[in-house]
Design a protein that fits this description.
α8 (230-241) packs across α9 (260-273). The protein folds into two domains: 2-36; 43-64 and 73-278, TIM Barrel (Alpha-Beta Barrel). The N and C termini lie far apart (83 Å). It has nine helices and eight strands. It is globular. With 293 residues, it is an alpha/beta fold. The structure holds zinc ion. Zinc ion binds at residues 95-96, 145, 149, 186.
Length: 293
C-alpha cells in the first residue's frame, strides 16, 4: 500500500514536471507569435488610442476613422499622422492668415521640420495667394476660418455663416486647388457673439458635410492691441496647457503679431525636450472642441 501510494506520488510529480515543461513551451511559442505580429499590434493600439481619445473628447460628433494609419509599424508614427497610444502630441495652429508674418512662421517650421495647421481667411493679393500655396507645398494643413472674419456679418444667421464659409472654400479650391474639411469658428465654436441656436444650426450643417471644427486647449493670449512678447506668449501657452498630452495651441498669423515665429521656435524646442511629437490637424484627429452651452 505504502509502495503503491509512493509510486502514485512519483507519477504525480512526473506529470507535474511534464505539464510545467509543456506550459513553458506554449509560453515561448506565444511570445514568438506576439513578436512576429508586432506590426499589426501597433496598428490596433493606434486605432484604439484614436477611438478612446475621440470618445473622451467634449464633443465627439465626429466618428474616429476606423482605418489604421498607413504606416502601421510599431515605431513611433511619422509626424502628422494619428498619434499612437501614449504619444504626446502638439498641434500648432495659426488663425487669421495669410499675413505679413506667415513667411517668418513657415521659415521656423521648415528649419525645425515641424508640421502645423493654418486656419486661413480670404486673401486676394498675389502674395496672399502664393502663401496659401507655400503652406501646402511645405506639408502643412489648411483649415477654413471664414472668408471675411467679420463677426457681426457671419454670425447674423446660419445662412450668413455658411455663405461666407462657402466663399472661402470656393476661393481656396480656385487659387490653391485644395478643399479642406477642417475649420475653426472665429472666436471659437462657443462664443459671446453668436446666438447659441445659430451656432448649433451651423454645426449641424458642417457635420452633414463631413467638416470637422477644432477649438483649442492652450492659447498664447496674443490678441491684444499690440504684439505680445514671445516669452509672455510662451508662458501663457504653458500655463493654459497644463499637463495635457494632446495640445491644440492657438496662435495668430497676423501682421500685428510679430512675435509668433519667435514663440513658435521656443514651443518646438520646449515640447521636443518633453518628448512630444508634432502633428497637423486632419478630420481624423481626435477633436478638441468646446462643449455646447
Ligand atoms: Zn480669427
Amino acid at each position: 500500500m505504502f509502495i503503491k501510494s509512493f509510486r502514485l506520488k512519483d507519477l504525480i510529480t512526473i506529470c507535474g514536471v511534464a505539464l510545467l515543461g509543456l506550459a513553458l513551451g506554449i509560453g515561448v511559442l506565444l511570445l514568438a507569435a506576439h513578436a512576429a505580429g508586432g506590426a499589426g499590434g501597433g496598428a490596433s493600439r493606434a486605432e484604439s488610442a484614436a477611438e478612446s481619445a475621440a470618445e473622451s473628447s467634449a464633443e465627439s460628433a465626429v466618428e474616429s476613422s476606423a482605418e489604421s494609419p498607413s504606416d502601421s509599424s510599431s515605431e513611433a508614427p511619422a509626424e502628422g499622422s494619428l498619434p499612437a497610444e501614449g504619444q504626446k502630441t502638439v498641434y500648432l495652429t495659426y488663425d487669421d492668415g495669410p499675413s505679413a508674418m506667415t513667411a517668418e512662421i513657415l521659415d521656423v517650421l521648415k528649419e525645425k521640420e515641424v508640421p502645423a495647421t493654418f486656419f486661413v481667411i480670404g486673401a486676394t493679393t498675389d502674395r496672399g495667394k502664393a502663401l496659401y500655396q507655400r503652406i501646402l507645398d511645405e506639408g502643412h494643413a489648411i483649415g477654413l476660418h471664414t472668408y471675411s472674419h467679420r463677426y457681426q456679418q457671419i454670425y447674423e444667421s446660419a445662412d450668413a455663416f455658411l455663405e461666407d464659409y462657402q466663399k472661402l472654400s470656393d476661393h481656396l479650391a480656385d487659387v490653391a486647388g485644395v478643399e479642406p474639411d477642417i475649420c475653426r469658428f472665429p472666436g471659437g465654436s462657443v462664443n459671446n457673439i453668436a446666438d447659441p441656436a445659430i451656432l448649433k444650426e451651423i454645426k449641424a450643417e458642417l457635420s452633414d458635410e463631413g467638416i470637422v471644427w477644432f477649438d483649442w486647449n492652450a492659447l498664447a493670449k496674443d490678441d491684444g492691441a499690440s504684439a505680445t512678447p514671445a516669452e509672455e506668449m510662451f508662458e501663457n501657452i504653458l500655463e493654459s496647457a497644463g499637463d495635457s498630452e494632446e495640445l491644440v495651441i492657438l496662435m495668430h498669423d497676423d501682421a500685428l503679431r510679430s512675435t509668433a515665429a519667435e514663440c513658435t521656435a521656443m514651443l518646438i524646442d520646449h515640447y521636443r525636450e518633453l518628448g512630444y511629437t508634432f502633428g497637423k490637424l486632419t478630420a481624423e484627429t481626435p477633436c478638441v472642441q468646446f462643449p455646447d452651452r
